[in-house]
Amino acid sequence: MKIARKPIIRVENFSAAYDGTVIIDTISFEIFAGEIFAILGGSGSGKSTLLKHMIGLYPPAGGRILIDGMDITNTYGREKRKLLSKIGVAYQSGALFGSMTLLENVRLPLEEFTSLPARVCDLTALMKLKLVGLSEFIHQLPAEISGGMQKRAAIARAMALDPQILFLDEPSAGLDPITSAEIDQLILSLAASLNITFVIVTHELASIFTIADRVIMLDKRDKKIAAAGKPEELRDKSTNLWVRQFFNRQAETEISA
């Protein structure tokens, strides 16, 4: 008998709007624990908007988002703090504090959200930096390291509080192919060794096929989910011409021929 997996994230009839303009219109999907789940779509499709709502930065225009069974936009006080401790976020820019060393950047969430002694905070931050391959650069400032290393440091900081879920916004953006591939391998390694659920906004096809267990594709034309499933299946079997165009990097005239 096959045991059904329980979703760690459930998006139910979700809509997003800015200044009365609907960006995403009534979508639903689930993400399961331990998955690497990618959110795809063309420019303006609402990928980053969806991510910002999933981490609780904005309330939805409709529907709800459940993280481990709790509604992230209707939870307050101690319960909200407990819920937010289950997630970590690494933004596209890295968002590291330029005046702080890598160790100080990663230690910051521990100082803000725990009562751990300073030495324990240091050791924990060092451990996270070691996990992402930066243990030799702990005293460097962000400006003194490469873009790929900044991405790694941002992931280390996102892991500081041992979250169950990591949200990554365009983790490979602006990186050369080799560095991008190294970030992919880091994500795979962390997912396997720590059983972290990853939710990744990306448009990098090489990364999608390397790391993603499942994907959803947002379509800005109808503001819905155009396709959902394993990336290989969508590339090879989708009946949606736009989906096939996206995954095969083809112009519409080519795929219609």
Task: Tell me about this structure.
It contains ten helices and ten strands. It has helices at residues 47-54, 77-84, 102-113, 118-131, 147-158, 177-194, 205-211, 231-237, 241-248, 252-256; strands at 7-18, 21-32, 36-41, 62-67, 70-71, 87-90, 165-169, 197-201, 214-219, 224-229.
Task: Sum up the structure in keywords.
alpha/beta; 10 helices; six-stranded mixed sheet; globular; disordered C terminus; four-stranded antiparallel sheet; 257 residues; 25% strand
Tell me the span between the first and last alpha carbons: 45 Å
Backbone CA Rg = 19 Å
Order of helices and strands: EEEHEEHEHHHEHEHEEHHH
Strand content: 15-25%
The helix content, as a percent range, equals: 25-40%
Biggest sheet: strand arrangement:
6-7-8-3-9-10
Structural class: alpha/beta
Write the layout of secondary structure elements.
Elements: E1 7-18, E2 21-32, E3 36-41, H1 47-54, E4 62-67, E5 70-71, H2 77-84, E6 87-90, H3 102-113, H4 118-131, H5 147-158, E7 165-169, H6 177-194, E8 197-201, H7 205-211, E9 214-219, E10 224-229, H8 231-237, H9 241-248, H10 252-256
Parallel strand pairs: 3-8, 3-9, 6-7, 7-8
Antiparallel strand pairs: 1-2, 1-4, 4-5, 9-10
Helix pairs in contact: 3-4, 3-5, 4-5, 6-7, 8-9
Summarize the structure.
Helices cover 39% and strands 25% of the residues. The chain has 257 residues and is α/β, with parallel strands linked by helices.
